[in-house]
Amino acid sequence: ATDFGIEEALKELGLNEINNGTSTGKDWFSNGDVIASYSPVDGELIGKVKTTTKEDYEKVISTAQKGFKKWRTMPAPQRGEVVRQFNDELRRLKEPLGKLVSYEMGKSYQEGLGEVQEMIDICDFAVGLSRQLHGLTMHSERPGHRMYEQYHPLGVVGIISAFNFPVAVWSWNTALAWVCGDACIWKGSEKTPMTSVACQNIAARVFSENGVPEGISCLITGDYKVGEFMTKDDRVPLISATGSIRMGKIVAQAVAARLGKSLLELGGNNAIIVTPDANIKNTVIGAVFGAVGTCGQRCTSTRRLIVHEDVYDKVKNAIVDAYKQIRIGNPLDENNHVGPLIDKDAVKNYLSALEKVEAEGGKILVEGGVLKGEGYESGCYVKPAIAEAENHFDIVQHETFGPVLYLLKYKGDLQNALGMQNGVKQGLSSAIMTNNLREAERFLSVEGSDCGIANVNIGTSGAEIGGAFGGEKETGGGRESGSDAWKIYMRRQTNTINYTTELPLAQGIKFDL
Ligand code: UN1
Q1: What does each C-alpha distance from 299 to 245, 268, 406, 462 come to in angstroms?
Q2: 318 vs 287, 288, 294, 305, 386, CA distance in Å?
Q3: What is the pLDDT of residues 169-224, one digit of tens each?
Q4: Which of 116, 165, 169 to mutate to test the pocket of ligand 1 (most atoms within 8 A of CB)?
């Protein structure tokens, strides 16, 4: 690992052998168990992090609540200025942070850098947004009345994020929530605790230099039980959770039980439809990156390729050929395309998906399997696989978080492909490859894709931060990141002001005393 400058990166990011995983900003403390973070890249120990106890959490939430009271009164553009400075630090530390993401999570170094770039982009977006937290004005039906709406800071926002985007998803939420005037408590994944501590170090330093009250960026660490401190806590008006559908259902119910707000960004089962009018070369690039990038561990990863029978063999051969070019190995080595899965449990799930698809009658086109030998000692490196399958197979209906691509054939009209594309419970990302305007527009129409993201002539993954990110059905319905996703981090208020000497009632009601 030292070959790739990991030691130096850890130092630059202020990480120690044992780190506190509970912080209210300036103050670091944790009294829970110690968890160790092992790299899926080489199986080596990266560091240890102390977890958050219930008592620790009480300190965090009360500091966050107190901090919020001050932070919310600071003008939004001034909050934006703090986020701008935080972003300067991200730009300065892009390489070490990208490296740590790659080493702790296992995605390629290029993708690690890309993830930090998403943080930088959303911060830029948030700085501009800090002057654009606009409400509307309306014309009152009553004479001498003015009506408008405004957005006020919401309170303490709880953020639960997953291992696969260990830093970007936090920033999509925090960068917006901070300019919106909220305090944030983050529980990152217990599989990637070092990246969480690294991010909190950066925020804590910049915030403290700017005299931001303590508690505006807080970190808590541990498994789902630590997450439950927040989901069940009515002092946390919004929970933003990114992860599995299973987790999302538990979080949603806990938050709903207290009538809190939740923003859920859960699993996908993303498909690319390939029509007879598709550019095959671009289809292959989009599909391969979508299926094997991040070792198939993006919520936007391409899981299904729905190909028209007229071009089926051509696409099948081209993609099988392309898979032969994929280099699997240490993700910090930029010659490799694909790194390891996050851990051995993920390897098990991947292997069981391959068994299941065969048991259901699927045909393996590109053999999977676990890689052994030099460089693969962590036991987490697997071969990206392709299977011919049918959409109704139980395994095809489920999201397997790994590099397994299902090839599905459709016949006749595009409607048949759309039926398959929409015929799953998830609704995150979707794409069509076609040069036919009618097909593209039908795919985007009300009768087309039912997903939160629908792309034409690009793949399913790699969304830009400027758009609202999220999906429908079991994906959870939430939208993070760009467009007007910021609104969920604020409370909305409609204001009506009467500047006359009378008191006319709305709807023309007469009430004479
Ligand atoms: C995720 O996998 O949780 O669209 C986020 C993409 C990335 C984000 C993925 N920008 O693939």
Answers
A1: 11, 5, 16, 10
A2: 11, 10, 21, 13, 12
A3: 999 999 999 999 999 999 999 999 999 999 999 999 999 999 999 999 999 999 99
A4: 165
Q: Which residue has the tokens 């303490």?
A: 156
List beta partners, residue 157: 184, 238
Strand bridging mode 429-433 / 453-456: parallel
Expressed in angstroms and rounded, the spacing between residue 168 Cα and the centre of ligand 1 is 9
Question: Which residues approach ligand 1 with their CB closer than 6 A?
Answer: 118, 164-165, 169, 242, 298-300, 461-463
Three-class SS state of 452: coil
Q: Name residue, tokens 């959770």.
A: 241
Q: How far is the CA of 482 from the centre of ligand 1 (A)?
A: 13
Block residue for tokens 């508690």: 215
Give the relative orientation of helices 94-105 and 76-92 as an angle to the nearest 10 degrees: 70
Which band of pLDDT confidence, cut at 50, 70 and 90, is reported for residue 387? very high
Burial (CB < 10 A; 0-12, 13-18, 19+), residue 236, is buried
- 156-160 sheet: strands from edge to edge: 217-220, 183-187, 156-160, 238-242, 261-265
Atom of ligand 1 nearest to the CA of 461: 11
* Average pLDDT of span 282-302: 98
Q: How far apart are CA 487 and CA 502, in angstroms?
A: 35
DSSP per-residue codes, 356-423 = HHHHTT-EEEE---B--STT-TTS--B--EEEE--TTSHHHHS--SSSEEEEEEE-SSHHHHHHHHH-
Given a cut of 70, whether residue 1 has pLDDT beyond it is no
**What is the value of pTM for the model shown?**
0.97
Q: Choose, from 104, 265, 399, 439, the residue flagged as catalytic.
A: 265
Nearest-atom number in ligand 1 for the CA of 464 is 10
Q: Quickly state the pLDDT bin for 397 (edges 50, 70, 90).
A: very high
Pick the closest to residue 334 from 112, 104, 164 (CA basis). Answer: 112
Alpha-carbon distance 154 to 183, whole Å?
A: 9
Q: How far apart are CA 370 and CA 376, in angstroms?
A: 9
Q: What is the ipTM of this complex?
A: 0.97
Out of 111, 299, 303, mutate this one to test ligand 1's pocket (max ligand atoms within 8 Å of CB): namely 299
Mean pLDDT of the chain: 97
Q: What are the C-alpha distances in Å from 254 to residues 175, 421, 498?
A: 25, 31, 41
89 is catalytic: no
Alpha-carbon distance 230 to 411, whole Å? 49
3-state DSSP helix/strand/coil % of the chain, to nearest 5: 40, 20, 40
CA distance 462 to 428: 13
| Angstrom distances, CA of residue 412 to CA of 1, 271, 369, 430 | 52, 18, 35, 20
For residue 242, the ligand 1 atom closest to its alpha carbon is: 3
User: 479 C-alpha to center of ligand 1: Å?
Assistant: 12
